[in-house]
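Tokens for Apoptosis-inducing factor 1, mitochondrial. Go.
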Amino acid sequence: MWTCKNLWKKLAPLARSSSTLCRQNARGVSNVFLHCLDMEKSLKRGDKERYQERINEIASRPNKVVPEQPITEAPAAEPATVAPAEVPAPTPVEFPSHAPYLLIGGGTASFAAARSIRARDPGARVLIITDEPDLPYMRPPLSKELWFSDDPSVVDTLRFKQWNGKERSIYFQPPSFYVSPQDLEKVENGGVAVLTGKKVVHMDVRGNKVTLSDDTEISYDKCLIATGGIPRNLQVIERAGEEVTKRTTLFRKVEDFKALDKVSRDTKSITIIGGGFLGSELACALGRRSADSDLEVIQMFPEKGNMGKVLPEYLSNWTTAKVKSGSHCQPRLIKLKDGRVVKTDHIVAAVGLEPSVELAKSAGLEVDSDFGGFRVNAELQARSNIWVAGDAACFYDIRLGRRRVEHHDHAVVSGRLAGENMTGANKPYWHQSMFWSDLGPDVGYEAIGIVDSSLPTVGVFAKATAKDTPKAATEKSGTGIRSESETEGTANSPVASSTPEPPPVPEQKDNYGKGVIFYLRDKVVVGIILWNVFNRMPVARKIIKDGEEHADLNEVAKLFNIHDD
């Protein structure tokens, strides 16, 4: 447990993953949403009843009609002029009754699938249903780049500058890209429509239809489930009562970013619980803000060091030490097991993601007991006409076995593959997705495969140069979302550097400038972290795909040219 006053200036090793963002308790949000819809529905019923009572009362009045007018015309004339002025009839929202391609969830996986479907079937009509009020957007910037903007209007514009200086929006496409749900069945060349603020609460797999929270039914030919996940909370917080829960943020959506941004400006202390990707990203972001304010930021985690579940212990300890050198640990109403108490104004619980599988029961779909998520095959199929992608998919990796992955690149790749298979491709998921994390513009890493600190690791390091930074990497690729530029890359015959064999892994006192960390299972490489080594992911992907046992990983490290100047 340590404070993070000057994290940004000290380049705290608070890793930035691509997609392990959290959101507010979706169960609570959906319950409130359902309640609001029920209220709205009952109000509409009440309006109609009052309208009809008014019409009946007017029609039954004696001697209220002008004598020159025929009595038979009075009932028709009065409702037409009086009733609408008193109670305007509500305009019904139109929904398409049928969607050839129905995508449940409005995140990265759904958008990638929609784009893939339209690429293979240009006339396709695709309907995305999301319970969020926003059009599809990328989640990584919510805990990363948006916090580093000096533009005070960033909360409204949701535009950010990447390390290469280029500006972009978090939204994948502007509103003009989409067709309206009402017009989806009519447009000549098809298109993609998004139904926002609606939640699918029931799936009738036999009848090929879904039911929304307002009882609307929509049928489909093929369906993708990309419902993502719900941020976990700690039981101790849930049991603490309303006073604590209202001061706790579960971070995942746009509204969570806006809410935490306001909290960080209006409060004196924030405690982040969790040492993983999200907790580390937010600690880094808020720590930078605290450098220019009186905000105190504390990060707490059970591991020995930051990112302790991912990085090998020596690297986790080294990066944590760099943060501590610029921080002051000040134990301050959070009681720890060792008796210490931490006083704080607000809590951010960043303790993982629970895959959203509420539809499994009504749809009769299998949920994996080990990893969670909808259990699918290598083609991401749960049924003959139902696919699952993104965080909610527990898929069979033909190289590494059954897995569930929570990263941006996986959402892109799995969504794209699901879209292809929905149009008849029948392709297995062989692509090893990657994720990345930057500790500011000068230090970062990229990873692929199974990177678990409980596995044996071998690290090979070298001295970094000015070009070995995330900023330089994004300048070269032209994008800050590095997976967008590298996922299509291949490595058929990587050429090793002729530099002499590197020295052994340095001790903790040394500076880990750049290097490669191999994660082993049964002496076979199953995961790789490239530490300040960029644009080499196709090489790492091929090593894992080959699945060979290597006698000397120092030789394998040469494939990444880490000793080149």
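Residues 37 and 214 are 7 Å apart (CA to CA).
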